[in-house]
Amino acid sequence: SQPPTTDVPLTPSSPQLAEVRAAIVKLLKQPDYDDGSAGPVIVRLAWHSAGTYDKATDTGGSNGAGMRYEVEGGDPANAGLQHARAFLEPIKRQFPWITYADLWTLAAVVAIKEMGGPEISWRGGRTDFTDDSRCPPRGRLPDGSKDADHLRWIFYRMGFNDQEIVALSGAHNLGRCHSDRSGFEGKWVNNPTRFSNMYYKLLRMHDWKKKKLANGFEQYVYIDKDLEGEDADGEEPEELMMLPTDIALLHDPSFRVWVDKYAEDKDLFFRDFANVFAKLLELGIRRGENGRVINQENLESGYKS
Ligand code: CCH
């Protein structure tokens, strides 16, 4: 049987998608939100939509946009991602033909590029679940308080290797932790809206000290001695942070090889990140010969345009 054909474009170069991309670029600047950009939380939205994938059962992944339902959206791991969804809602209203699943993933790719990161290939055609029956179970996303074994347990399940785990983790160049979302607090790098390999550099550069927060969470922190007092802008320097899982990349010998390479070679990091992020967004998505998504749920619902 033939996969459904639709009018929805698959490639970002199509004029229709160019309009959506331009609209996404416009909404990224949010002066009153966090560090002034919706980009980081949007990147996390796409990652958490895709990072539920389980290779063994071929369930989860970015098709479906299941986070709109409480069973997935209410996973404590997804706390705060309603902000990303709210930022993107006007675009969905403006371009009703795009599915949430495509919009969330495309928006992340656009945001990364806009924040100075690499061009990431993206393909459309995802559909949205119409109920929560196919949502993945909670508990498939990583826990920042854990160690290297946990990272392997989570990411091997998706089909990633050690190099890919370290490359993906470089997304922590972006954004910050919020105590009312994850329980952790602070940002990894000084400029959290600029995509770079600074995360790996800082990981290696500093003597990260364990700190217990008032809520009992333990993270690692570093205060730049040179910046104590006031920095160039006359603002108080902020303490930088790492999660226990970030520090695990530094101490695990197999992960460490890649931390070193990415700290020393920004181009290599950009290339590897672009590849692995594109792979993340395609997890669990099956395409027919014409590139159309042929997941069972898509065959059932079609792709309304
Ligand atoms: Fe992450 N991440 N992440 N992360 N993450 C958090 C924030 C961001 C873990 C834990 C956390 C990836 C991998 C991991 C982003 C992208 C990626 C937070 C703070 C925690 C905790 C959430 C809060 O409080 O708002 C753990 C553990 C892992 C294990 O590997 C991967 C992979 C990616 C993307 C490729 C981004 C971006 C943020 C910033 C979000 C924001 O709101 O600023």
Structure description:
The chain is mainly α. The protein has two domains: 15-141 and 277-301, Peroxidase, domain 1, CATH 1.10.520; 148-272, Peroxidase, domain 2 (Orthogonal Bundle), CATH 1.10.420. Helices cover 42% and strands 5% of the residues. It is built from twelve helices and five strands. It has helices at 15-28, 39-50, 70-73, 81-94, 100-114, 148-158, 162-169, 198-205, 244-251, 253-264, 266-282, 296-301; strands spanning 176-177, 186-187, 209-212, 218-222, 240-242. The strands form two sheets. It has a three-stranded antiparallel β-sheet. Strand 3 and strand 4 (218-222) form a beta hairpin. The longest helix has 17 residues, at 266-282. The protein is globular and about 55 Å long. The two termini are 21 Å apart. The model is unreliable at 1-6 (pLDDT under 50). The structure holds ligand CCH. Ligand CCH is lined by residues 40-41, 43-44, 47, 80, 142-144, 151, 168-169, 171-172, 174-178, 181-182, 184, 243, 245, 277.
Query: Which residues sit in consecutive blocks of at least 5 with pLDDT less than 50?
Result: 1-6
- Tertiary shape: globular
- What is the highest CATH level, the class of the largest domain? Mainly Alpha
Output the radius of gyration.
19 Å
- Given the structure, what is the number of helices? 12
Bound molecules: ligand CCH
* Helical residue percent band: 40-55%
User: What's the β-strand tally?
Assistant: 5
CATH architecture of the largest domain: Orthogonal Bundle
CATH topology of the largest domain: Peroxidase, domain 1
- What is the percentage of strand-forming residues? 5-15%
Strand order of the largest sheet: 3-4-5
In the residues, how many domains can be counted?
2
Average pLDDT reading:
91
